Amino acid sequence: MLTSTGIGSGIDIDGLVSSLVSAEAAPTNNRLNNLETQFQTNLSGLGQFSSSLATFQTALDALNNLDNFQNRSTSLNNSDYISVSTTSDAPLGDIDVIVENLAKVQKLQSVDFTSSAESVGTGSLTIIAGTDIIAVDINSSADSLADVRDAINSAASGKGIQATIINVDDGFGGTVSRLQITTTETGVNASISIFVNDSDGNDTDTNGLSRLAFDTGTTNMTQTQAAEDAVIQIDGQQVTRSSNIIDDAIDGVTFTLLDEDVLETTRVTVNFDEASAKAQVSAFTGAYNNMITVIKGLLQVNVETQQVGLLQGDSTVKTFERLLRENLFANSSDTVSISNITQLGINTDPQTGHLSVDSEDLDEAALLNIQDIGQFFAGDNGLAGRLSAVIEDFIGDNGSIGERTKSIQAGVDDLDDQRDRLNLRLINLDRRLRQNFIAMDILVGQLNAVSGFLTQQLANLPGSVFRRDN
After folding, report:
1. Where are the extended beta strands (E) located within 215-345?
2. Which end of the chain has fewer surrounding CB within 10 Å, N or C?
3. In the chain, what is the greatest distance between 2 CA atoms, to the nearest angstrom?
4. Which of 99, 88, 85, 94 is nearest to 253 (CA)?
């Protein structure tokens, strides 16, 4: 870049050129900056708008699922014997249940040992637990009662049995140790048998390892509790299962057995869950109001505070508002008893645009038919589906907001190109001005030099008096 301090003319050429270039750039820069601010404001507003629509659409997904309006509530005349949980598949009405027998684990108890350190004997155990066959080897280096317990638990890990040592009173002021083997699953099919291969050659006597034998022919261990299946009566029909949790007797109903008594009948009453259905309606109005609050903020013009929304007057938002209202209050053909949102007690505040729910009207609609409430929202032409489709047209991959955002981003990119062109023009203007001013400075210097020479020559003429004015 050409530079000069204005030696010939005394003019600050650098400062003058910079000022002229800045003056030339100012109008365009201001225009581009204003455009960029507007673009960024629109992008920010559209981002908030899109986010609020996406949040509302997520809420609509739950409303668009008919199962969410099919939830059941249950009541029992007695909670001592069973607890009940249900899904939307549960039949409505009364179910009479009698718990005749609880499912139980099997418990086997050994003879008394002086302590857990007493030697039991050597050999091997073959434990059949349900369909599992468990082999346990006991050698002389580890044949105490505690060792046998540990060997059984190691070999039987995850196979349905657990060995424990219980130290109990011996009746004479001391204690004895007993090995207890318990099934970890209830039911007859989980029962265990223990076959012994005793190193002393006798597998069935009450000496050595054979003291732990328990099978159809030898019962050296004592069964303190037999494995049993659960037996219940459902409306007079017998149901037998291995577990106290029965979830396959009636579709959508799970019975958890708590106690047994053949003389006690528990009546289970299954109804539609009105509270759940009404909560869905309240959730809808809450999600809708949150979205409307964001939209109103984006469009606001507050004269008192001089605040203007990021998308004030935006046609995209106004189009969405119009389509939203049209679908919100359109009649539905999916139900007979509920054709319009106002029949659910949902009203609109004309000032804020927010929805409110009249609880009495909603209660009345729920009493008439909860299924119709579900159909109104989640039917083939349900409100949730219609509103979700409107939103998708705006926030989808090819939606209005996306296309609008692409257009604005293209404008932002074009601003960069315009700034590049402006910078190139300013560089050329700077160079041209400097060349002109430097040429002027040189000419002024030359003229000053000629002026000085002529002044000197005139002063030297005979009889001439030349005074330089200060």
Report:
1. 222-225, 230-234, 237-241, 245-250, 253-257, 266-272, 301-302, 307-308
2. C
3. 162
4. 85
469 Cβ neighbours under 8 A, 6+ residues apart: none
Q: Which residues does 255 contact at the CB level (< 8 Å), separation at least 6?
A: 82, 83, 84, 97, 232, 245, 246, 247, 249
Per the CB < 8 A criterion, the answer to whether 300 and 317 are in contact is no
Cβ neighbours of residue 139 closer than 8 Å, sequence gap 6 or more: 122
Q: Which two tokens stand for residue 102?
A: 């609880």
19 exposure class (CB count in 10 Å sphere: 0-12, 13-18, 19+): exposed
pLDDT digits (tens, 9 = 90+) for 145-200: 999 999 999 999 999 999 999 999 999 999 999 999 999 999 999 999 999 999 99
Residue 368's pLDDT is: 62
In angstroms, the CA 357 to CA 362 distance is 7
The DSSP code for 100 is E
Pairs from 427-435 (Cβ < 8 Å, separation ≥ 24): 429/20, 429/21, 429/24, 430/1, 430/17, 430/21, 431/1, 431/2, 433/17, 433/20, 433/21, 434/1, 434/2, 434/3, 434/4, 434/13, 434/17, 435/2
Q: Helices 400-459 and 13-63, interaxial angle, to 10°?
A: 170
